[in-house]
């Protein structure tokens, strides 16, 4: 398979590339094109080529999706906090660039297009448990652009323009590296920073709940989306990826149980109304039944997510 990953220099995009190049990859990857606005990490593998490109440029789509491409994993996006503060740029990257890539895919045959959406497409008055087909009512610009893309991808799939699949990601925790401008960035920071001996500021109440998944589980699930038979998806090609509902209080308690009181005490609460207003609008209870039947994975507990971060990213013994 000839595969393209956009947003390949990002946290999830880079990890997807690593899995696709590994011997355990569920997709036999012959060529892998990694595209981003900054240069993706150099890999010593002849199958890999890199392209640094602005996806909003007029010729980007043709360069990113060459003839012969079989699968596109489209992760490139302006994150939630940035999109909220810069409305025009958020729409240019998150919607206009996606539409251009879809038009390019339409000109090619039998192309599988996997799009990463978000649980941020939901908002307003929601049922107690959210289903794949629950109506979207986003309360932020990022979620609005993603919701528009979902509808567009479904129509491209309905018309047979491309084999489209949409996966809605839970909040990913624990992310390694530095904090980004996503409003949910604290969900990693309140674990990552203390484990690295640094103070972390939590901008929301400890009662706030989040729908979470570990990075490794999300990466596996995004790749798995490309392997699900198209006829199994049905006419609505959107999948809420499995996650677990965890309160901030439980997250910190889990950190205390895994790493000790001294580490957990490095979390300090300092409310941010901008962040709190957006994050509190996100749903936290989803029905995982359909996604699990389709072979997607789910984490067991937040304690295990923390342990995974310590072992894989910090490379420490528990």
TrEMBL record:
The question of whether NADP is a record keyword is answered with: yes
**What molecular functions are annotated in GO for this chain?**
oxidoreductase activity
Give the UniProt keywords, A-Z. Answer: Carbohydrate metabolism, NADP
Q: Which InterPro entries match?
A: DenD, Epimerase_deHydtase, NAD(P)-bd_dom_sf
UniProt keyword NADP, yes or no: yes
What Gene3D superfamilies does this protein map onto? NAD(P)-binding Rossmann-like Domain, UDP-galactose 4-epimerase, domain 1
- The superkingdom listed in its UniProt entry is Eukaryota
Coiled coil located at which positions?
none
Residue span, NAD-dependent epimerase/dehydratase domain: 3-203
The name of this protein is: NAD-dependent epimerase/dehydratase domain-containing protein
């Amino acid at each position: 398979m000839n595969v393209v990953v956009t947003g390949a220099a990002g946290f999830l995009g880079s990890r997807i590339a690593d899995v696709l190049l590994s011997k355990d990859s569920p997709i036999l990857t012959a060529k892998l094109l990694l595209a981003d606005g900054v240069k993706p990490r150099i890999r010593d593998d002849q199958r890999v080529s890199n392209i640094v490109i602005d996806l909003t440029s007029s010729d980007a789509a043709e360069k990113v999706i060459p003839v012969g491409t079989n699968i596109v994993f489209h992760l490139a996006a302006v994150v939630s906090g940035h999109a909220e503060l810069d409305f025009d740029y958020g729409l240019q990257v998150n919607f206009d660039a996606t539409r251009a890539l879809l038009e390019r895919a339409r000109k090619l045959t039998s192309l599988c297009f996997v799009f990463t959406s978000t649980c941020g497409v939901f908002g307003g008055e929601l049922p107690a448990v959210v289903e794949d087909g629950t109506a979207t009512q986003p309360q932020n610009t990022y979620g609005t652009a993603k919701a528009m893309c979902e509808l567009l991808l479904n129509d491209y799939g309905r018309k047979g323009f491309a084999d489209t699949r949409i996966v809605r990601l839970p909040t990913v925790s624990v992310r390694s590296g530095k904090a980004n401008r996503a409003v949910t960035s604290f969900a990693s920071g309140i674990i990552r920073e203390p484990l690295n001996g640094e103070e972390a500021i939590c901008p929301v109440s400890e009662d706030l709940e989040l729908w979470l998944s570990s990075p490794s589980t999300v990466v596996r699930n995004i790749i798995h989306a490309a392997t699900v038979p198209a006829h199994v998806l049905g006419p609505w090609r959107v999948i809420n990826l499995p996650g677990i509902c965890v309160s901030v209080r439980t997250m910190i308690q889990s950190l205390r149980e895994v790493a000790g009181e001294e580490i957990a005490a490095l979390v300090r609460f300092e409310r941010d109304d901008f962040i709190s207003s957006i994050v509190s609008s996100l749903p936290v209870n989803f029905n995982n039944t359909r996604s699990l039947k389709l072979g997607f994975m789910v984490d067991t507990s937040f304690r295990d997510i923390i342990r995974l971060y310590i072992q894989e990213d910090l490379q420490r013994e528990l």
